[in-house]
Structures are given as structure tokens and as C-alpha cells.
Amino acid sequence: MKRIISGIITFFVIFFLLSLRAEAKTYIIGDSRTVGMQIAAGNTEDTVFVCLSGSGYEWMITEALPLVEEDFTTGDKIIVAMGINDAMRPSFMPQYAKTINELALNHPDCQVFYVSLNPVLDKPESTVSNKQIDNWNAYMTENLCDDVLFINTHDAVTFLYHDWLHYETSCNRDVYEYIRDFVNMPLEQEEEESKAPDDPRLRHLAKPEEVEAFLAYYESSHKSKGSGGTNAIGRIRQVLQNKLEQVR
After folding, report:
1. Is the backbone of residue 144 left (phi > 0), alpha (psi -120 to 50) or beta?
2. Torsions phi, psi of 49, nearest 5?
3. Which domains does the chain have, with CATH numbers?
4. CA angle 10, 14, 15 (to 5 degrees)
5. CA 65, 117, 162, 179 torsion: positive or negative?
6. What is the sign, positive or negative, of the torsion defined by CA atoms of 126, 132, 137, 143?
7. pTM: predicted TM-score of the whole model, two decimal places
8. Rounded to whole angstroms, what are the CA distances from 173 to 8, 20, 120, 223?
9. pLDDT digit string, tens, across residues 30-88
10. Quick count: other Cβ atoms within 10 Å of Cβ 45?
């Protein structure tokens, strides 16, 4: 009897411990811009921010990822929002792409995302230019593997600047909410044409030319993806087509 009771107790202890980590988490790894998002987002129990002002590639691979990588589990979302402090050095682009692709390879049960570098104000004190940012984003869309989804906040948010590099709190909140909505959209879902225009990834697109530009971006950066309705990128294509018809 004691053995049976002991076994039951052990079962419930294990069940309790597992239940503590039952909910999938979202990890956002980034620099000072991510610090701004964390402040703007407020209390987010299901989101783990790993961010440091002024950080770059070396910090990401030697401190940030080792700190949390062992905690990644099935269903987690891993978001890398870094690169602005390295964008003036093109030699870092292959290193970022390789590391992020390996992250997706090493954690196939998680979803991995990379957030575009967002614009700056071109001023004398700026250490990176918008041209360098555009080159960086183009490289990443071409060289990230199919298992990494690119979140194009660069073309989706209206940016309000605090200084040449950082944004106002309201803007940081917009960026965070766009990312949150993007990663929480089911990757596979049944066709629901009537709901397609409400896709949160498109709420910032109000003009035909904006929708067409976004559609062109996805068509060019995901050429190898399928076009079926249950395919993630195919679904986005379909939603964009519906949105285009709506705003014309």
C-alpha cells in the first residue's frame, strides 16, 4: 500500500512540474530597440525578453543564446531581433544568417523568426545608414532557410523617433504588437476567405501600393514555398490578394 501511495504521489508531483511548463513561451532576443519594446509591452507572462543595449553578434552567441537555449521546448517561438549594431559591417551578415538557420535546425519543434532591421534617421551622428539596413534585410531574406520566417516590420510600422536610432514608446509598442500578432497567427489553417482581410499582419496596409509592395516582397523572398492554402506562405499570399481587392 505504501508503495502504491508513493507511486501516486510521484505521478502527481511529476505532472505538476510538467504543467508548470505546459504553456509555450515566446523568446525575443535583441538589443536596445528590444529593450524599448520590453518597456512598452509591460507585463507579458508568456514572453521572455533577452536583450541588452549596445549588443551585437558576439553577445548573442556567447551570452544570450547559451542563457536560454536549454529552456527551449516544443511549441516555443524564438524571435531574433538583432543586427542594427553590426549592420555597418557586411561581414556579419553571413554569420547572422548561419546562426539563425542553425537555431531552426537545432530546434525543429520550435518556430524561429527573424525581425527585419528597422530604419534610422540619417544624421551626421548616425553610425549606420538606411542603405546599409536595406542591404542587410535583402541579404537576410535571401539567405535565411525556409524554416525561419522573416517578420518585415520595416515596411509595416510608421516610425516615430526618439533619437536617430531609437523610437518613441508608442512606436515600440506598435512594433511589439506587430511581432506578437505575426508569430501568433496559426501557420496552418483552413481556408476562411471571409476572414482573410482581418489578418493582423496586414492591418498597417491601407493603400493598394502598400499591399502590392508587401505581396511582391513575399513573392520574391519565398520563391521556393508552395502556394497551397494550408502552406504558411501560400496562406499569406492568399490573404494579401484578398486585402488588395478590398482596398482597391
Report:
1. beta
2. -95, 125
3. 20-184 (3.40.50.1110), 188-248 (no CATH)
4. 115
5. negative
6. negative
7. 0.70
8. 47, 28, 17, 31
9. 999 999 999 999 878 889 999 999 999 999 999 999 999 999 999 999 999 999 999 99
10. 7
